[in-house]
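Incident log, support desk, overnight shift.

02:14 A customer reports that sequence design results differ from what the structure should imply. Their input is reproduced verbatim below. On-call engineer (initials T.W.) acknowledged and began investigating.
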């Protein structure tokens, strides 16, 4: 499957969310990435269930909900009901990761595990056959507009190796500091889904920026 582009609305104008989503969709966005932060697991507070519900009513592409919250298992049901098509939880705050991933899948939603930059790929090993996707953080979560951590490239390949050993075809999503200039490297390392906030909604023309990011990944796919 070709690389999917998931614009992150964290960098969008929250007063014009429907227009921002429509612009990214016009540029060919495949998913809409929604960053939920609680001010505890990460320093920032963003949005919650009601905004996901409103987005679900206007978005034509599936909603990819990234939970940066403690005790995510308490909230996955509400986000599924609000219209999330994909829900990811951080390994660092999920002592019962096997149970949480199973619960997400039972809700009929794609389940993802997120790994912070300092969390090793091997953390996935005991549950590697379960997730539908693995989200590799390429910045420390909390804010848009941070710089891509170069060690993430090797981490993506390490995650692919863990998944392959488990016989898993789970997709790899990469989130943080993605720009047209580094998209090719990330895709070559094994990324299937690219999240981009500042590179899309930090520009005057999110549709053109989405197209530019896809062009950068297409170049990488030709090299493979
Ligand atoms: C960071 C969030 C990201 C962020 C990406 O904690 O999980 O999804 O919005 O934004 P950029 O692409 O600007 O790093
Ligand atoms: Zn995110």
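02:41 Re-run completed on a clean worker. Output:
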């Amino acid at each position: 499957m070709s690389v999917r582009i998931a614009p992150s609305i964290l960098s969008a104008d929250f007063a014009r969310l429907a227009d921002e989503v429509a612009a990214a969709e016009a540029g060919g966005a495949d998913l809409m990435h929604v960053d939920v932060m609680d001010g505890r697991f990460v320093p920032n507070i963003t949005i919650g269930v009601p905004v996901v519900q409103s987005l679900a009513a206007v978005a034509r592409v599936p909603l990819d909900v990234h939970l940066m919250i403690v005790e995510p298992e308490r909230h996955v049901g509400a986000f599924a009901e609000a219209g999330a098509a994909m829900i990811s939880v951080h390994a660092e705050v999920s002592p019962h990761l096997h149970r949480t991933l199973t619960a997400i899948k039972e809700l009929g939603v794609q389940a993802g595990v997120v790994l912070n930059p300092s969390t090793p790929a091997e953390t996935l090993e005991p549950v590697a056959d379960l997730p539908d996707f693995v989200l590799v953080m390429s910045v420390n979560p909390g804010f848009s507009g941070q710089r891509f951590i170069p060690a993430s490239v090797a981490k993506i390949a390490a995650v692919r190796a863990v998944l392959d050993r488990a016989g898993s075809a789970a997709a790899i999503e990469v989130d943080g500091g993605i720009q047209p200039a580094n998209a090719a490297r990330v895709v070559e390392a094994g990324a299937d889904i690219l999240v981009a906030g500042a590179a899309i909604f930090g520009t005057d023309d999110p549709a053109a920026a989405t197209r530019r990011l896809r062009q950068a990944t297409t170049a990488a796919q030709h090299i493979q």
